[in-house]
């Protein structure tokens, strides 16, 4: 090969013909474990190709009542970052990391949000804080910044990439927030009442002035008493509430009973504490929120 020819070869072609070693920005993606599907999506969005995300509680599954298996402990041990929601959403998570003797970093993604305190009713004994912070997109901005900071501390070479990805995503969260406000604007305060199975919409309710009533408390796995169910049925009848929704990760039996007793048609599935599978409308956080807002508004229009 003549020198003149070599001069015109680009750097990438030198790599391609084997004259220079390949310099990949992230030859070994950073192994990260997320406790549940919504966090898994956020970590993937911020981390992009530089991370390899494993999610413990997958689509349509209930993280409140999850029982970890040895494979989950193994996944944590192989990771360098364990991302959890915190606020007692996944009480099993830190126990699991401890019992596996995990030495890597743990990030509480909700750290720094304005925590909503719960009224001490509905059988609440332990949780004082509402863990469902992701139901308010402005909280998710905090989650995303926390994730970007943690990833950058473990992979400083990727810091600008994490920064860029999070900034782009934060713009999408802001559009989601605006979309929600626009959709709700025509509804009167009286119309803004919704029945769901468990009490997961507190942050959403506070941001968008909607009243959510739920027969189950904050934990999807706690059964309500017959008295609580009867009270809710009376309220649905009195206020003529038509917006009744099931959640993707909980048992619809209870709401089926309520709809039968009140003659109200059950609305479509909302994606609440978990994403949907890939072929359903809630396969990412942004898709799940768009779906929920659209369905909730359609339901409340009938109130
Ligand atoms: Zn929940």
Give me the Rg, rounded: 23 Å
Separation of the first and last Cα atoms: 79 Å
Number of strands: 6
Please identify, by name, the CATH architecture of the largest domain.
3-Layer(aba) Sandwich
Spell out which ligands are present.
zinc ion
Order of neighbouring strands in the sheet with most strands: 2-1-3-4
The largest pleated sheet is described as:
4 strands, parallel
What would you say this structure looks like, in words?
The structure is a single chain. This protein has 303 residues and is an alpha/beta fold. Helices cover 43% and strands 9% of the residues. The chain contains 11 helices and 6 strands. The protein has helices spanning 3-8, 11-16, 37-47, 70-77, 91-99, 137-154, 159-184, 202-208, 226-239, 253-262, 285-300, and strands spanning 30-36, 51-57, 81-84, 105-108, 193-195, 211-213. Strands 2-1-3-4 form a 4-stranded parallel β-sheet, sandwiched between helices. Helix 7 (159-184) packs parallel to helix 11. Mean pLDDT is 88; it is low at 1-18 and 20-24. It binds zinc ion.
Quick summary:
The protein has helices at 3-8, 11-16, 37-47, 70-77, 91-99, 137-154, 159-184, 202-208, 226-239, 253-262, 285-300, and strands at residues 30-36, 51-57, 81-84, 105-108, 193-195, 211-213.
């Amino acid at each position: 090969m003549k020198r003149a020819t070599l001069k015109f070869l680009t750097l990438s072609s030198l790599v391609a013909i084997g004259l220079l070693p390949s310099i990949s920005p992230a030859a070994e993606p950073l192994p990260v474990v997320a406790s549940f599907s919504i966090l898994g999506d956020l970590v993937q969005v911020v981390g992009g190709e530089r991370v390899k995300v494993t999610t413990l509680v997958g689509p349509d599954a209930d993280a409140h009542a999850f029982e970890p298996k040895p494979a989950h402990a193994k996944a944590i041990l192989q990771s360098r970052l364990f991302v959890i929601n915190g606020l007692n959403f996944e009480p099993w998570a830190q126990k699991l990391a401890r019992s596996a003797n995990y030495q890597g970093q743990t990030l509480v993604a909700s750290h720094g949000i304005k925590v909503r305190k719960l009224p001490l009713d509905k059988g609440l004994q332990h949780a004082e804080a509402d863990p469902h912070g992701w139901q308010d997109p402005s909280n998710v901005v905090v989650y995303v910044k926390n994730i970007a900071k943690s990833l950058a501390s473990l992979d400083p070479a990727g810091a600008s990439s994490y920064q860029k990805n999070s900034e782009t995503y934060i713009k999408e969260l802001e559009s989601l927030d605006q979309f929600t406000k626009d959709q709700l604007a025509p509804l009167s305060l009286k119309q803004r009442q919704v029945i769901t199975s468990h009490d997961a919409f507190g942050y959403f309710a506070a941001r968008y002035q909607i009243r959510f009533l739920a027969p189950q408390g904050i934990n999807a796995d706690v059964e309500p008493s017959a008295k609580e169910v009867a009270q809710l049925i009376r309220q649905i009848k009195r206020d003529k509430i038509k917006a009744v929704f099931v959640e993707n990760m909980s048992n619809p039996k209870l709401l089926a009973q309520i709809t039968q007793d009140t003659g109200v048609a059950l609305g479509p599935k909302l994606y609440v504490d978990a994403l949907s599978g890939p072929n359903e409308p809630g396969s990412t956080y942004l898709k799940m929120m768009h779906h929920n807002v659209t369905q909730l508004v359609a339901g409340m229009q009938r109130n």
